[in-house]
Amino acid sequence: MTAAITALQLEPLGPHFGSIVHGVDLATATDEQVAAVRAALVDRKVLFFRDQSLDDDGQVTLGRRIGELTASHPVVGGVDAAHPEVYALDSTDNGFADVWHTDVTFMRRPPLGSILRSVTLPPSGGDTNWADAQLAYESLSPGVRQLVDGLTAVHDGTREFGYYLAQRRGGQGNEWDGEIVTRLDPVEHPVIRVHPETGRRGIFVNPGFTSHIVGVSEFESRAILDLLYAHLTKPEHIVRHRWRLGDVAMWDNRSTAHYANRDYGTDRRVMHRITLRGDIPAGPARA
């Protein structure tokens, strides 16, 4: 842990990852605090901040202090014309995330990280769970690690967002990585990703967007993916957050997956998310 991180008041949620950050007002944080938060994001992977007063403007300003912002989503428009960077996840408009996933892995350059704040919460339920992809990889048996280190997987956003792009956006999405998104071609990423800042390896497949593994049979692909998914989401690899109004969560998209519980019936849940521009995932061979 670096000196910058030790300057923060961190309450660990687990022995390996996840922390509540105390004593930081994200709307007025100093440059030193922002740098410490950025370092802690890599080290602890998911951070939570209570009793914050951010609105859409403040969330965007915070994101720009931490990194370069992307559009709200490759396909889904921003919350309004003034905030094209803000993605509204509204349960009344199919804004659910009740499948394990890592954000936007169906693009060649997925986000570095995400910043999510609560806007409207149900009376109960709607918790979010995060899985530590690096801890999950490191707790695989050596033989399985050797098997998956050299594999490549296909990620496809068409299943989730193809209809939205065609029907609700008229075939034209947002600008992502310098190009306007007009189609969601499948992309290939390493099954095991090497974190560009730490060199640690983590599982980089997810049920939300990964369709299959390249170069193996359909049966083998499903068996390997099911093994990795089951291992990734073991309880000892997970932290769970119970939301309150004023909460902000921040996570490293390169080393985590997450799942939002859809257990609140017809009550409304609205979350606003921004994402930070990332890099092209590299596997063990390229790293």
From TrEMBL:
<keyword id="KW-0479">Metal-binding</keyword>
<dbReference type="InterPro" id="IPR003819">
    <property type="entry name" value="TauD/TfdA-like"/>
</dbReference>
<dbReference type="GO" id="GO:0046872">
    <property type="term" value="F:metal ion binding"/>
</dbReference>
<keyword id="KW-0408">Iron</keyword>
<protein>
    <submittedName>
        <fullName>Taurine dioxygenase</fullName>
    </submittedName>
</protein>
<dbReference type="GO" id="GO:0016706">
    <property type="term" value="F:2-oxoglutarate-dependent dioxygenase activity"/>
</dbReference>
<keyword id="KW-0223">Dioxygenase</keyword>
<comment type="similarity">
    <text>Belongs to the TfdA dioxygenase family.</text>
</comment>
<keyword id="KW-0560">Oxidoreductase</keyword>
<feature type="domain" description="TauD/TfdA-like">
    <location>
        <begin position="10"/>
        <end position="275"/>
    </location>
</feature>
<dbReference type="GO" id="GO:0005737">
    <property type="term" value="C:cytoplasm"/>
</dbReference>
<dbReference type="InterPro" id="IPR042098">
    <property type="entry name" value="TauD-like_sf"/>
</dbReference>
<dbReference type="InterPro" id="IPR051323">
    <property type="entry name" value="AtsK-like"/>
</dbReference>
<dbReference type="Pfam" id="PF02668">
    <property type="entry name" value="TauD"/>
</dbReference>
